[in-house]
Predict the 3D structure of the following.
Amino acid sequence: MSVEVCDRPERHRYEILVDGQLAGIAAYRIVTPRRFVFTHTEVDESYEHQGLGSRLIGAAMGNAQRRGIEVVPECPFVRDYLTAHRDIDVVPEDERARFGL
């Protein structure tokens, strides 16, 4: 099984592909060039329970961290991921308390 995560800025989302097929998305809204609001994560039901949501968000957060992009985790899945992975420091200081981070 081949898994690829890619940013699709023209669609304002990250996509996870399994063997070339779209398996899930993480949608975001650009507030500023350095601040993105993640609004929704979805994995197709035929790919659920395989850890693909975590792989998708892990790759997206790693990309944000490398690029110096701040993330506002309005999506509960993204928020839960960041709560479990405190070493990923992408949520801006002025938003951390609102999300319990």
In short: The mean pLDDT is 96.
